[in-house]
Write a structure and sequence with these properties.
Blueprint (H helix, E strand, L loop, with lengths): L8 E19 L5 E21 L2 E7 L13 H13 L4 E8 L9 H17 L5 H11 L3 H6 L2 E6 L3 E4 L6 E7 L6 H15 L14 H9 L2 H7 L1 E2 L2 H7 L3 H10 L4 E4 L6 E5 L2 H13 L3 E7 L5 E4 L1
Helix pairs in contact: 1-2, 5-8, 6-7
The chain binds cytidine-5'-monophosphate.
The site of cytidine-5'-monophosphate (C5P) has 12 residues, from strand 2 and helix 5.
C-alpha cells in the first residue's frame, strides 16, 4: 500500500549513511573543516510525504523518540522546501510528513536525508523540474551531507564533504548499527576535535586544508572485500566522540568480541557501525549485541539515494 494519503502527495525515501572513512583537516573561515570522506548509503531510510498546501507545515514521527526534531525553520527539510520555492518562484506551500527511521542526531545524516527527500518530493509535487546540477547546488547550501543523500551509493566527498565523486563498490557490505538513546551535536564534536588537537599538539600548527582518501579504502570497496575494508576504516571524529561519550568504547569492544570485523563511530556519532563478514555473521553479531542490552540493527549498503516511491 502506498504511504501517500491521497492524489496530490509525493512520497520520497532517502537513506542514512555511514562514513567508512572520515579524515578531517583544518578549519576554514566559515567554520567548516576540510574533509576527505567515503560515504556509503545504507538500508535505513527516512520517508517524506509532501502534500500540496497553501502553507509550509511539518509533522514528524518515528520508530524512536523524535521530540528533539524541530518543527519550524530550524528543520532542514522545511528549509529545503522553502529554498526550492524561493529558487523556482513557486508561490504555494507544502505539508511535509517525515517518518524517521535513521537515529536523530546519530551521526548517520538523518536530517540531511530529510532535506534531500524534501527537495525531490517538492520538485515533483510542484512540477518545478529542477535540473540535477541546480538540485545539487541547493542541497550543498542546505548542509555538507545533503548532496550525498540525494545521490546515494558509495561516494568520495571532499571540500566540506559536499564535492562528490562516485566510488566503485562491488557487491554488498553488511553492517550492524548500535544506536544510542541520546544524540551528539555535530558542531560540538568538531569543536572538541579542534580543542583536542591543539591541546595534544597534533596538527596544531599546520592542519591540512586539502586531504585525500587513502588508496586501500578505495581498493577494498572496489574489490568488495569486507576484511580489507575493515582494516582500512577510520574516523577522525571518533576520538572526540569517545571523549564526549566514553561508554561508546565498551560498545565497540562488545561488537568486536561478538565477531564483527571492525567497528567505528559513524560520522560525529554516537551511532557505532560494525562491518561484518557476511549477512549471517551480521545476524549473529546483532543478536549478541541485543542480548547484551544494546539497540542493534542489521543494514546493508550501498543503496540508492533519494527516490520517488509514489506520486
Ligand atoms: O553542514 P552540516 O549542517 O551537516 O554541518 C553541521 C556542523 O558540522 C557545521 O555547522 C560544522 O560545525 C560541522 N562541520 C564542519 N566541517 C564539515 C562539515 C560539518 O565543521 N566539513
Amino acid at each position: 500500500m502506498s504511504l501517500a494519503a491521497f492524489p496530490g502527495s509525493v512520497h520520497v525515501r532517502a537513506p542514512g549513511k555511514i562514513n567508512v572513512y572520515l579524515g578531517v583537516g583544518g578549519r576554514h573561515d566559515d567554520g567548516y573543516h576540510a574533509l576527505a570522506t567515503v560515504f556509503q548509503a545504507v538500508s535505513l531510510y527516512e520517508d517524506v510525504i509532501a502534500t500540496a498546501s497553501d502553507e509550509f507545515t511539518l509533522s514528524v514521527s518515528g520508530v524512536e523518540d523524535t521530540s528533539a526534531v524541530p518543527l519550524d525553520d530550524r528543520n532542514l527539510a522545511m528549509r529545503a522546501a522553502k529554498m526550492l520555492a524561493a529558487a523556482t518562484g513557486y508561490e504555494g506551500g507544502v505539508h511535509l510528513e517525515i517518518r524517521k527511521s535513521v537515529p536523530v542526531a546519530g551521526g548517520m545524516g538523518g536530517g540531511s536525508a530529510d532535506a534531500a527527500a524534501a527537495l525531490v518530493a517538492c520538485d515533483a509535487l510542484w512540477g518545478t523540474g529542477l535540473h540535477p546540477p541546480r538540485m545539487h547546488e541547493l542541497a550543498a547550501r542546505l548542509g555538507a551531507d545533503v548532496p550525498f543523500a540525494l545521490h546515494g551509493g558509495t561516494a568520495v566527498g571532499t571540500g566540506r564533504g559536499d564535492q562528490l565523486n562516485p566510488a566503485l563498490a562491488h557487491g554488498r557490505f553488511d553492517w550492524v548499527l548500535v544506536t544510542s538513546e541520546e544524540g551528539l551535536s555535530t558542531p560540538a564534536i568538531y569543536a572538541r576535535l579542534d580543542t583536542h588537537r591543539s591541546q595534544s599538539g597534533a596538527l596544531a600548527d599546520d592542519p591540512p586544508m586539502s586531504l585525500d582518501v587513502p588508496i586501500p579504502v578505495l581498493q577494498a570497496l572496489r574489490a568488495g572485500e569486507p576484511r580489507s575494508l575493515a582494516a582500512s576504516m577510520f574516523n577522525d571524529l571518533e576520538v572526540p566522540a569517545l571523549l564526549e561519550r566514553p561508554s561508546l568504547d565498551g560498545v565497540i569492544k562488545a561488537g568486536l568480541s561478538a565477531g564483527a570485523l571492525s567497528g567505528i563511530v559513524s560520522g560525529s556519532g554516537p551511532t557505532v557501525a560494525f562491518l561484518c563478514e557476511s549477512p549471517e555473521s551480521a545476524h549473529y553479531v546483532q543478536s549478541e549485541l541485543m542480548d547484551a542490552g544494546h539497540a542493534a540493527l542489521h543494514v546493508h549498503g550501498p543503496v540508492s539515494g533519494a527516490r520517488i516511491i509514489t506520486a
